[in-house]
Write a structure and sequence with these properties.
With about 475 residues, the chain is of the alpha/beta class. It has helices spanning about 60-65, 85-90, 95-105, 120-130, 135-140, 145-160, 165-175, 180-190, 195-205, 240-245, 245-260, 285-290, 290-310, 320-330, 330-335, 340-345, 350-360, 380-385, 390-395, 425-435, 435-440, 455-465, 470-480; strands spanning about 5, 35, 45, 165, 235, 265, 315-320, 345-350, 375-380, 405, 450. The chain is built from 23 helices and eleven strands. The radius of gyration is 22 Å and the shape is globular.
Length: about 475
């Protein structure tokens, strides 16, 4: 049983006839609500929202984008959304069901000054199994962004009830730098000793039969020669996961870019940063748990560090899809100013950058054949939702004679820490077993299994016993 200890309880925003949101929903203001709204149980009788347009209606309008068309409740396996519905067959656990529950809550605002009941168990249940895959934003006909709607709900709920201790732990562990050696020793011991794993489940609600990612003995530190090239300058954004857990991925990306003739500079905190020795973090893990203000603080550090690159138009290259795409998506909702819009066109995943350079005739990357059985490629949900898989295929196609196929699978089921949570571990496996894990087991021995997502690699290792790797590592092996 999860011990739901609460830490860091905050003062609730003022709620009296109107809602002060923690994210910026102004992009949704002024639009129509539609004529009807499909509830999650098949009826279409819920009336359209009647609240008058205003600065506090953006959140309700965003929820009201769902018109009950039911694309999220498909069972044909196509697309990304909605992984939890596919696994449970429960309409409440679909984008449509969550939107209905949330909209009902927002429309029932109390007239007695008590405000909206963000402690609602029903809405909490609806939101609990949202994996934040972002599939709905791309695949829903109306572009409902349920991951962002859930973030606001969690933020409002945390303001009233506080933040569970496990959420606080998972939200901050990727950024943790101090005490790395001790943390690594504790995680290694916990992964080996069932009694200790059982203790962490009782204390924190971390599934005892799940391994925890092991921090690297030494985090990524760029070599002094990182910018030793006369070519076009690029900026490498090393996220918290690849910096602290798999630094070999960041090193491989740096070497591939240098081999292609680019002058690589690793993004570092701004000169006037209040904590210049602390690594940058996009804030993704914080935002996933509704810790909006903390995520916004990290995002401001990131934007300050990126300011010179924005001014010069220098390409910014990232490795972890969930982190990189946050700069192109959620940063708009954090209210960081117009600089986010200027940054977006110059932010790329590694494969996106290489593919764009190849298409422009500028890429000079000599690659050798990699013989062996065909590789399996699994795309991170955010890669699929943002249309990034075409670039992955284009770059792999540059390796002479390299054979690969895409895994016909949606979400892997890990979704950050979702698969590590005791109450969700079984569902996480069920989602993985729907398509991905059987496909991995069917791959020939010695064939590469490729996955850019840190969580995806974790799920594949835990569920199929195979080591998946980032495309950057494969490209480094293919360097001529």
């Amino acid at each position: 049983m999860v011990k739901d200890d609460i830490v860091g309880k905050t003062t609730a925003p003022t709620v009296s006839g109107s809602l002060r949101t923690q994210l910026d929903w102004s992009a949704y203001e002024g639009g129509g609500f539609g004529d009807s709204f499909g509830d999650p149980f098949g009826g279409f009788g819920m009336p359209a929202a009647t609240a008058s347009p205003g600065a506090d209606n953006g959140y309700l309008r965003a929820a009201a984008l769902c018109q009950g068309k039911g694309q999220c409740q498909r069972k044909d396996g196509a697309g990304v959304m909605c992984p939890s519905f596919r696994a449970t067959d429960d309409p409440l656990h679909s984008t449509r069901g969550r939107a209905a529950a949330l909209r009902e809550l927002l429309e029932m605002e109390s007239g007695a000054g008590e405000g909206i009941d963000f402690a609602s168990p029903r809405v909490a249940e609806a939101m609990a199994l949202c994996l934040g895959c972002k599939g709905c934003k791309r695949e829903c006909p109306n572009g409902v962004d349920m991951a962002l709607l859930r973030t606001e709900f969690l933020a409002q709920r945390a303001a009233r009830l506080g933040v569970p201790r496990r959420d606080r732990l998972f939200a901050g562990i990727a950024r943790q730098a101090r005490g790395r050696a001790l943390l690594r020793a504790i995680v290694a011991l916990r992964n080996r000793l069932p009694l200790l794993a059982g203790w962490t489940e009782r204390l924190f609600g971390i599934a005892r039969d799940r391994s925890l990612p092991l921090p690297a003995a030494r985090p990524f530190t760029p070599a002094a020669s990182a910018a030793a090239s006369d070519g076009r300058e690029v900026l490498l954004l090393v996220d918290s996961f690849n910096r602290g857990f798999e630094p070999e991925v960041a090193q491989a990306a740096l070497e591939v870019l240098q081999a292609a003739g680019y002058a690589v500079r690793v993004l570092a905190p701004a000169a006037d940063d209040a904590e210049p020795r602390r690594s940058l973090c996009c804030g993704r893990s914080l935002l996933s748990y509704g810790l909006v203000e903390e995520a916004r603080a990290e995002a401001r550090r990131m934007m300050a560090a990126l300011a010179p690159a924005i001014a010069t138009g220098t390409p910014v290259i990232g490795l972890e899809p969930s982190c990189l795409y946050m700069l192109k998506d959620e940063y708009f909702s954090l209210g960081l100013g117009e600089a986010v819009g200027r940054l977006t066109p110059q932010v790329f995943l590694l494969e996106e950058f290489l593919a764009s350079e190849q298409a422009a005739g500028r890429l000079k990357l000599a690659l050798k054949p990699l013989p062996g059985p065909a590789a399996l490629v699994h795309g991170h949900c955010h890669q699929k939702a943002q249309g990034g898989m075409e670039a992955v295929q284009a770059v792999l196609g540059l390796i002479p004679g390299f054979e690969f196929r895409l895994a016909e699978a949606g979400c892997c089921g890990m979704a950050g820490s979702f698969g590590l949570e005791a109450e969700h571990a079984a569902l996480s496996r069920r989602i993985g077993e729907a398509a991905l894990l059987p496909a991995v087991r069917a791959v020939a021995p010695g064939a590469p299994v490729l996955a850019d997502g840190f969580s995806c690699r974790h799920q594949i290792r835990d569920g199929a016993g195979r080591r998946a790797e980032h495309v950057a590592l494969l490209l480094r092996r293919a360097l001529a």
